[in-house]
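Help!! Second protein's tokens look totally different from the first
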Amino acid sequence: MRILTSLLFVFVFFISHSQEITVLDSSTGQPLFNVAIFNEDKSQSTLTGFHGKADLSIFSLKEILHFRHVSHLEFQSTKEEILKRGKQVHLEPSNNELQEVVLSVTKFQQKKEDIPQKVVSLSRDDVVFANPQTSADLLESSGQVFVQKSQMGGGSPMIRGFSTNRLLITVDGVRMNTAIFRGGNVQNVISIDPLSIERTEVVLGPGSVIYGSDAVGGVMNFHTINPGFAMNGNTRISGNAYARHATANDEKTGHVDVNIGTEKWAFLTSATFSDFGDLRMGSHGPEKYLRPEYVVRENGRDIVVPNEDPRVQAPTGYDQINVLQKIRFMPSREWDFGVGIMYSTTSDFPRYDRLYRKRNGQLRSAEWYYGPQEWLQTNFQAHKKGNGVLFDEAKFIAAYQYFAESRHDRDFQDIILYENEEQVDAWSASLDFEKRFTRSTFYYGVEYVLNEVGSHGRETDILTGQTQRGSSRYPDDSSWQSFAAYGSFQWKINPDLSFQTGGRYNFIALDASFEDPVYDFPFSNASIRTGAFTGNAGINWQQSSVMGWHLNVSTAFRAPNIDDVGKIFDSAPGMVVVPNPNLKPEYAYNFEAGNRMSFGIFELDLTAYYTLLENAMVRRNFSLDGETVIEYQGEPSRIQAIQNASNAFVYGMEAGAKIQLLKSLKLVSQISITEGKEEEENGALVPLRHAAPVFGNTHLVWQKNKLKLDFFAEYNGELSFDELAPSEQDKAYLYAVDEQGRPYSPGWYTLNITSQLEIAENWLATASLENITDQRYRTYSSGIAAAGRNLILALKYSF
């Protein structure tokens, strides 16, 4: 019996390994990790491991298999032919990555070579190698998205001179922007767990035709990992475990994800916990950034205590939990159903840039912190494939999201804690179609969005615990709705030339009531009904094997939201923003042209753009019944409001280069240059607030066998006092001081090295030493200094 059992074991072992193949780079002979292998209808799929190996036992012998990798040309063959050829597949490198497929421009798969806009893609491998602590850090690592931070629990992307509510974020096709996304810096992107991301695509430039309001400067699409199926009645269990530690803020992160797949059902669970301590800045840089003292409360009194290490930014630490659960059901080759649940929450986290402001030479705030930032997304998705008269593919997404945030601040030696709490219930539904013709494709769809906003304010006596009603940040029980229909047409004129155009109509309805007894406004409600039409047209032309071009003209819009119309807050010391119910949409007109050149070992990608923003909603001085000053939280404050009071324009250039120095050594570099101006009340042109300084990175990457090394530099240019927007000039506490005593944003650079080693079949170790020279710097408009010298160690186990 033992002999029979042993023979059976050997037989099963032989059969399972007889269908294991290896995928290699045809030019270097190196194994390729994370190659997607799938059949014609994509009902079955698998990925290669670290050694480029994959088991094809889930596929039948006669099936045509597709091999796809982001940096190689797609290959297809039957399983039978692959096994006969020695169980090896050699993929040809793609010289200019034109074969890459993206989803972000139409919500359906398109070849990058056919898209007339610039799209930046980041894969799961990029996440593991870059070791980002948050999704904001992941975007920044691309070298093409600028990120501002007011505190460590933050990260506000800037793209082509636009930020916050002029950029759109989606997660698994669901709009994340809410009716209270503000014009100031927002940190909602940190709610997305970078360790659960399968792929991130950033559309640089307008995306309103597909995504509607807010997609003015760009669209950031995050696609989380999907459950994978098994075949032939088997159950397949796989997953990853990951741990990371960083020295600059004593980070401790743990992550696990587990996939259970059967023939028709698949389940995926992912969880991440991160604990961040106070952040230590570098040794060499402006002394103004140091933290020599901070406030603590002892024996019922606020006292200022010296900081034992002024490079430690106290307090900045916080912790965060992210959980993801997905269920997928594929009853047939035509239907694919999915349910996703994502939840993220943080601890309280300090608003660091408010904690070192001074008034009359003394620290102003005793405490200023955000309450837990909560985000829940639940979505149901149905994907239908067919060959009908009206469509070949259809996608339906229905989603509910819950957002909660709060602000808590108290002045030094004051006993009153001012608190604001906001909640948003966000409902959405979209139905999208793709219809393919011989040489063209038509995309069309409809979308509905409803946001319901709850907002409450209170004032708490910290000595007695007594609470009374205070002013809410937004009008409570307000709503924002969007109804939209769109169409987009792509025509493949010939193999080297494609044309794409489209249009969208949006109708926006906003309702808010201002019956707060704390302030006596000269209006009781706001009811806005407005529509907007946007369109685009562009071409992508591969002139030759060396030269390619893209050209795109597009419009975008942003409709007033609850934050624009109804917010009450202190924008700066002595300034208070009040509601304005008379707002209209702002419109952007964009022109973009790009050139791609490939000369064998050398590639160059250049893009230039110009965007005009009309009727821009900006903060300006305001009056209420002739009054220009009111008392806000115990302080006389100049009244301001968001108004359609300006036009603005942005222009710039993005350049990327890649040089294959040796088979195992390459140089990759990115740089972005942005210039922006907006009109003042007197008609003068002043710098645009969110136009970032020159920024970019350069990487020297060496990879051979199981080891990968990346020596790289990150850098930002300087913005002098005259190059700062007036609103930034008023925030002298954020900036260094020039020779004339005026605030300015210094240029900076960091030198860094990252290494990655496959230490065993399923084990991957990553080590990074960032900011090697220990520079002390703040990125433009940021209220917190970046990490000093920082050692990051990570270990990943895949099973």
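Here's the second one for comparison:
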Amino acid sequence: MTTLVIVILVGWFFVVPAKIERRLHGIVQSKLGLESSCESVSLRWNGFVVEGFSIGGAADPLSMQLDRVGVLGSLFGLASDPRGSVEHVEVSGVRVSLQAHRLSELFPEEAEPAGAAADPPPASRSQLPRIDVYDGTVAVLDAEGPLMSASGTISVADGILRLTAAGVSLGSEGSDRLEIRTGSVALPLERPIAVSEVEADGLRLFVGEHRETIARLRTIRAGLPMSSAEPEPEEENPDATPAWMQRLADGGSVHLTDSQALRGESQLLHGVGLDITRRGGTLEVKIQGTAEDGEVQADLELEPAAVRGRGSVTLVGVPFALLVPVLPDLPWWQPEMATVDGELSLRAASPAEVELEGRVAIRNVGIQDARVSPRPVAGLGLEAQGQARWRPDDRLLTIEEATLVSAGASVRIQGELQRLSPNYRIDLRANMPSTACDEAMAAIPRDLMAELSGFAWDGRIGGRARVQVDSTALQDTELEIRVANGCRFVTVPPPADLRRFRGPFVHRVREPDESVFEMTAGPGSSNWTSVHAISPFLVQAVVGHEDAGFFRHDGFSVGSMREALIRNLEEGRFVRGASTITMQLAKNLFLHREKTLARKVHEVILTWWLESALDKSEILELYLNIIEYGPSIYGITHAADHYFGRPASELSAAEAAYLACLLPNPKGYYTSYERGSLTRAMRNRTERFLRHLQSRNRIDEVALQEGLAQLESFTFYRPGGSVARRVLNGRAGDLPFASGRVGDGWLDMDGNPISDGEDEFDPGEASDNDDSDSHSDDLR
């Protein structure tokens, strides 16, 4: 009898606890691949208690400390098969640290070995034992550091997992973050797991200056191994409920009370109530909140799969910063100072169509970005109102009428936008009624105008535009712009004063390496050649290469804009601009090299000013005498002497064609001069261009043949070398400013106008890429 008692006691105090401990360690190792330890395991008549249970360590993606774990159930069953014998689990003093960016180490994407036990079927999940976790804290980290912390309790009963939080913080200081005073989440433990109920009180949303939290969560999600069991309804069936919406169970709901949104110490919205309920494929959304001087209300029924909805949204004096998290990720400046008013109504006239009508006004918004302007652009305002129809089946938005108003200018827009991935179609028409010029220009923010804000106009301006784009037929793209320009410049700021170019002036250029090149140019200087004295071959070549419609347009070429639009859409990025000669002159005379939106605005206004103040021959003369033809080679006088040892008046057709072909990238195309002969790519390019000039009657057949012959033995001048005298055969088309027929544009060999806009030279691709001549065209 004594022996039996001793055996029972040994088993009770040593064998069974050790077996339970080994079993616990084995479960942790098999499920998580982590080591575990515990201070003690003690038995009770109806279970056991584990003290000081630890999982993982600081070097592991998951570490967990549990002060006390009490397990109720059949004692001997617990020793042999804990999962099937547990009736109730109580845990207290839980501290969890999770490195979310290393979750894939816990759940690697590996095929289960043959014979591996499958997950329990859904029915067994509702039979899980009761689990209660008290005094729990969780810290989630990523590669950037702490991301989330939470404290509260967890309970599992009747197949429902309920998380009750006494405090949750997501995000970090200075970024967008979320805090919840109290809240609870209920998740039925079925496959796929979906939230059935979310309740939160005292939620505080901090709208930070950066969207770091959202970006960090996306990074974590992208690193998670995807479950092959999860469906992808968007790809299999466009009408199926989206996967993100399935995270909320059918009939499930989200309720937030006494919530607020803040930016720093500023309260954007308070007393917010939010109710979201999912009913099948529909989300019922109700929002109500109060701003300092306004409110926000929404009552919507949304069908995300069909991109359809009905209901209304009202915004009155809402801080713009509140909308920043759901707007395009732009560098908004002091968004808490801007406000939004608006009303939007959605009416589902039929399942196939939704009618939209509304108005939105944004006031005092600002942007700060070095790509826009060196300084913040503040005080922006825009009001839009109109009606539209949305056909979700066709993904077609029809804008029946919309009016955009900024300052004193308004534009009416009509048309259609359609996106049937991966294709799209755009057909938009815009009309600006006759408007006082000063009011129209006031729509451009003063911060963008900067030193050009001293311009003033009188008269009126109006116009219309239309663009049609079909991604399946980009070459059929149409672009039409018509402007009724009755504006007259009445005040010009000092930086744009043209009087300094009437005589010698210092032309200063800041190179890409920040060095500064200076030369004296202008009439009367040694670096100046009158446009009437420049070889007509050179004038024809430069205009034919850079801006075929120069003598017909008013500084802006719609044809070039269309071609640039097509090319950029085909490439899916910006690869070609649409600068005219006048626009290039404006950049060379007045502007720095930085590529900003403000610089583009200045370029447009200065181009307008140049075309108003100078005639075409003056613009062309300035342009040819200051533009770059190579490293520190500016102006045609220097270029003709440097490359060929001749005055600009004696340039041949081949030499003129070569110089014109340099202009898109004069430093990159300098290779030919350095090696002393044309590279194969530059020779082919120049030959194609000569043939193009003749096909457009800019040079005659004799000049073409002589030019092609010269290319066979094309040479460059070297300092100290001799230059043979020669007689140029052939001729170039008459120059319109010399003939007095500027309005006719170029004249061909018979004195007839040459049509423009369709004859711009397309350099094509270089025939070889063994030298720098294979560079792409400059983004002019």
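Reply: Different proteins will give different token patterns, so don't panic. The chain has a mean pLDDT of 83.
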